[in-house]
Amino acid sequence: MIKAKKSLGQNFLIDKNILEKIVNSTDISNKTILEIGPGTGNLTSYILKKNPKKIFVIEKDNELSSDLKNKFNNQITIINEDVLKVDETKLFKEEVIVFGNLPYNISTEILSKWIVNLKDKFWFECLVLMFQKEVADRIIAEFNTSNYGRLSIICNWKLNIKKICDIEPEAFSPKPKIDSSLLLFHPKKNYIKINDPNNLEKITRVFFNQRRKMLRKPFNQLFNGDKKILDKLKINLNLRPQNLGLETYYKLTNEYEKLRS
Question: In terms of domains, do 48 and 146 share one?
Fold first, then answer.
């Protein structure tokens, strides 16, 4: 029996009801699937029952990769690699559906990598991803709430996000010490264009560096107190970073790029 490795953040999903809920969250019949961190293949088995066209899995652990090969033979294509080093945009000729019980220690890093590398053409049809509940709450947080921050702004830029359900520790083996949440991401048809997503990362980093302070200092740091931008975007510098809506941050990034072009 394969033991979960703490160093890789492994917690294997074993609850059949949750596994059913995950594969039923979107139509996968005759679709190409990418599963991140399949572990012992519990979810993979449920995906196969839905008759997808093809399944790719990315599994970093050599022992698990070997076990998956024995278990599923030629039913799946195994990529024995670190997901952070894989360029998914070059793997597929068509949009895929992504499932992932992401390692919690790198879940935001994986999601941020995908969003920052997104071009105008999306490489996925949707993402069905599991996160630590605390992280999921930050991803779906609305402005004027304490959970709202950089992660909310970056994730909601090109994606519509919906929570499917919360998942208790008992659904996993070994049991994590925290609750989890399952989120569904769909690409937006319309979003504010940003030339370089790294600029959005920079804007949000500077503004949320001191989230309890007023906007004046970070705004002056980035825009040298430019009153035209304040008037154009109707920003009150006495507010705090969490009081500005998503679109304001995207428009601020546009203004930042204009200043540097």
Answer: yes
